[in-house]
Amino acid sequence: MLHAETLTLHHWLSPAFPTGAFAYSHGLEQVIALGQVTDAAGLEYWLADVLRYGSGWQDCVLLACALQEGANLDALDATCHALQPCLERLQETQEQGAAFARTVAQITGRDLAARTLPIAVAEAAAPLGLPAQTVIAAYLQAFLTNLVTIGIRHVPLGQGEGHGTLARLLPLVPDLAHAASLACLEDLGNCCLGADMAAMEHETKEIRLFRT
């Protein structure tokens, strides 16, 4: 049975929710400009690595830890802050997290602090009582969908190719969400240096379509 809490979570993580996610490419603009992602296959490869080994995995472990009862959200927020590889990526998670918390607070009347995005989502979602794996999977799907949409607009890909890429990547989401739901801080890691370097290089671009 589909519960209202699940629909609430999907509302909060939908493209319509005003976090400004469409303005952040997570370094994807830079790898497209460098000719490292030129088609659907290249986009799929890049996004799969980000999900498995980069900030996708990193965010989901932090989200899982923040969903645990009695979690120290201030400490986890500081950890998320410290793990960002460059100023733009810090800006991305802070600004989206602040916008997310602000809008959920307006809807619910709760007092929610401005935190980095995975911690903000965890704090907002905890009272929904949903399994951690469900929250993490929805978060990953939203992250992935936004980046595929950017690929559709900026590579550019056609709608069919772009959504075909998304369809091929979505099966990764349940497995990663399950693994992250069982993880702890010792499981944090990032082996996606190319994506991090692209975000660093993007900071130096004089003309940018996206903020990151």
TrEMBL record:
One of its GO terms (molecular function) is nickel cation binding. InterPro entries: UreF, UreF_sf. Pfam families: UreF. It comes from the Bacteria. The keyword Kinase does not apply. Keywords: Chaperone, Cytoplasm, Nickel insertion. Transmembrane segments: none annotated. It is found in: Cytoplasm. The keyword Nuclease does not apply. GO terms for cellular component: cytoplasm. HAMAP family: UreF (MF_01385). Required for maturation of urease via the functional incorporation of the urease nickel metallocenter. UreD, UreF and UreG form a complex that acts as a GTP-hydrolysis-dependent molecular chaperone, activating the urease apoprotein by helping to assemble the nickel containing metallocenter of UreC. The UreE protein probably delivers the nickel. Belongs to the UreF family. This is Urease accessory protein UreF. The lineage of its organism: Bacteria, Pseudomonadati, Pseudomonadota, Alphaproteobacteria, Rhodobacterales.
